[in-house]
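Box 3.1. Reading complex inputs
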Amino acid sequence: MPLMKRNGAVCWVPRDSKKQLVIWFGWFIGIMLVFLCWQSISAKTMWVFAADAPEQLRLMLMRMFPPKLEYMDKLWKPLWDTLNIATLGTLLGVIIAVPVASAAALNTTPSKRLVRPLAMVILVSSRSVNSLIWAILLVTIVGPGILAGIIAIALRSIGFVGKLLYEAIEEIDKTQVEAVTATGAAPAQVFSYGIVPQIMPAFAGISLYRWDINIRESTILGYVGAGGIGLNLSSSLSILAWSQVSLILIAVLITVVASEWISARVRSRLI
Amino acid sequence: MPLVQSAGGVCWKKRKIIENTPLRISLILAGVIYIALALSSVDVNWVRVQEGMGRGLAFLGSFLQPDFFSRSAEIFEGILESITMTVVATAVGIILSIPVGVGAAGNIAPFPVYFICRSIITVSRTFPEVIIAIFFVAMFGFGALAGMLTLTFATIGFLAKLLADDIEDIDPVQTEAIRSTGAGFFQILTWSVQPQVMPRLIGLSVYRLDINFRESAVIGIVGAGGIGATLNTSIDRYEYDTTAAILIIIIVIVMCAEYASGIIRKRLQ
């Protein structure tokens, strides 16, 4: 318990003075760093343009309300496409993620020296590149449309699902695997009877969680031409049809909140 | 243990995830029908795909020979801008997310405050960063300021939600003890709530720093500055070797950041 003498009386303080000094120094460095970064941003900003932001916001909100409800007729198809991009993308991603994850997990990998690092590189590079960037690349390769969106979502999901899945595989109970092996089971049987039942709840949970993230991400893929409601968003924005934009935003909000609710409900029942 | 009688005696069968047979079969059927419908809505222009394959191969080829040098000044500037955006946005985001997070914790905030703070969190978490960036760009003009504000806004939703959930989970006994000494609301916060949530808050902030950098690579596409803008330009110019170089740099930085943040978070727990 650090105690300090102050004006002759002994006081209790949360930390001793040396530790306090280190903490203050850390704060000092941190604040200086943030300040420096802010200065460089501020130097590049045209403050004349930024100054009228409240006015811009007011005008934007004025143009957005009321939302143009008739436009909803044209939104059902893009919404359906968005749902399909997210779902099929998740499915494809999960299908690829399973072998990659089992190659990356320490206890199931065929070779620690060769296969595991390769699987890790796949997982990390898939996770570091956002689905929107994948979508831009894929639109130039397979052309605009929902196929590019599906592949983009799948490529991004591999890393996420694969990482969480291989961690789940590494945490399984070894004794069960040993018990199945002791019955003389072949490697494939060990996998399906010793490992799969243990990771199934985690696997389903992870996939559903990713599905709900993918719904959110697929709403913007259309912005670069990869299908879904983002396509309507970008065209409405470019013709300055703000009352359509607000309706699209409401549709996105409802879809995302609903998918999050569904995924949370199903996950809480599974686990 | 599910056992079944069969011709050869008693057999063991694997346990099904959904025990109720009609429900399971109808769920499977619904799934199959949905997938068939969804697949049929995917219309692929195979001629276009075939044309694009050449470009795909060119892209793969340039990944093997990335060009770091011919645009190195732009790349460096973009990365630096992304990092400054990330740092400021994370710092401001943390500062702003603390009051919102405290307000969104059901056990210490009154209902109207709770409701307002939870709505802020929902809006910020629902919309993808890119959509938010579009609006900030419209309001503040192109450049890093709009990007920084976008990341700040997204950080508030993320951190405040997790902080609020954390505060709701704290040990009430400690709060009770502090309250019994006659402490006011802010004294309860500093002496009972803050010590309990601080380690996790720091861990989450480090994690968010890492996410913000990743996102800063994307919001540049809609004009919010950073490495995303450089990336988008290089794709538009069909300079795939530069694109590959930028992607590799992003991957390496994200990998290092993730590794570092993993170590920091492990040491905190």
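In summary: Chain A touches chain B through 60 residues (CB under 8 Å).
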